[in-house]
Amino acid sequence: MSVSLEPARTAPSLNSRCIALAGPTASGKTAAALAIARHWPVEIISVDSALVYRGMDIGTAKPSACELAAVKHHLIDIRDPLHAYSAAEFVQDAQRLIQDIGARGRLPLLVGGTMLYFKALLDGLDDMPPADPAVRAVLALEAAGQGWPALHAELAQVDPVTAARLAPNDSQRISRALEVFRVSGRPLSFFHHRNASESIAGSADAASATTLISLEPADRAWLHDRIARRFDAMLASGFMDEVKALRARGDLTPDLPAMRCVGYRQAWEALDGTSPMGELRDKGIFATRQLAKRQITWLRSMPQRRVVACDGPTALEQVLELVNADARAFA
Length: 331
Fold this sequence. Notes:
Elements: E1 18-22, H1 29-39, E2 42-47, H2 65-70, E3 73-74, H3 87-103, E4 107-112, H4 115-123, H5 133-146, H6 148-158, H7 160-164, H8 171-184, H9 188-194, E5 210-216, H10 220-236, H11 239-248, H12 264-272, H13 280-300, E6 306-309, H14 315-329
Parallel strand pairs: 1-4, 1-5, 2-3, 2-4, 5-6
């Protein structure tokens, strides 16, 4: 697509003002972000729970070396896959980066598809109960006997809001949500929404400080086709060798958050022999489609978002118009 861009200019004085570009996987966020970067002097803050991990490049569709060199990126390759990265850590890191980037006279551009991170940053997260190994062990035993869909059904009874956005086999998140409920007697969604008045700058108007642009397909089949083609490209680029190298370290397990990322989980199971290798492609694509569905559900719960049909012929132009109008208004 040919996009007419205005000449780059000095960034406006935005303080904690920032632009957020969200969307489901394979919706074209990277291309749109780079188009914005050619138009405004931005620094990109990744809002992606998989891109934080080093050594996980192919399966996460991490921006290429050329793309990373074209514009400064933050919160990519900051964590070893052995160590988890939480939403609370993201909020702390993103708040600092937004202030630092603004202080440099540049525009913070938040880009990604981890909607919990966006929610936590824009709406705030209350202090949740810390991990309780004993409760977690009990849940693991229950899951071994009943299966995660049964525990998902239990979660739906005590926390329907959280259950609605989780897949029945999303063991990590189902376990955490039930753990929080059993420890505190309150649903996880209570903690997610309690501090909705807090903002990225500690003020009461977080949403008004951020323009949230949402790339959403008008035709879901368009997104499904892109997901399938991207998964095939990952396989052709050596994705399985990447997973084999991670397994060869010897210190990673399939229960770690990093290894439960979409694609990695299915590849690990195939290499373990617990899932047929011949079904890897179909299972990986299906899991990615389910992820995209959950991401879109999250986005639709954000009334402040400005929707751009990512499968439309003028998607990039529309994104740029929204950014230009907002940035000029606060120049």
